[in-house]
Please model this.
Amino acid sequence: MTGTTRVIVGLSGSLSSLAALYHAVGEAARHEAVLVPVAAWTASERDGLRPLSELEHAARRRLDIAFEQAYGGYPAGLVIHPLVVNAEPGPALVGAVTGPADLLVLGAATRRRLDRLRHGSVARHCRHRASCPVVEVSPSALLTRLELPARTGAPLPLLGRV
Model:
C-alpha cells in the first residue's frame, strides 16, 4: 500500500468492526496515514421521536466505545479524524474516500442471509463504488490474535501500544 494517505474504517459496534479497527490502526501506523473511523447513522421507525442530535451523539459514542474496547482510548501517535455521517453505511464509507491512495477497511459481513438480501451488503456496495482498495477483515482474525494470550494469561494485544 505504498502511498496510502488515509485509512478509512467503518465502525458499527460489531466484533467484525473491532477486527477492522485493529487492522486499520495497524495500516495507518505502518504507512503514517491519517485514520478516519466512520460511524454512519440514520433515523428509523424504531427511533420514534428521538431527536436527530441524540442519534448523532449515539453514533459518535459508538466510535469512542470501539476505541475504548480495542485500545483503552484513542491511540497516541496517530492522526485521527473521526467522521459521523447521517447516511447508510455503504454510501457513508464510499463518501469518505478521497481518492485511490486511500484504503477502506471493513469488517466482514456476519449478518444472516435474509438481512443482507433486505438491506444489501455494505462490503459489496463499497467494493463496487469505492475508488480505492477495499479490505474486508474477518472477526476470526481478531479472535486468532486473542486466542494465545487468553490461554497463557499474557496481556491482550489490543490493549498494547500501536
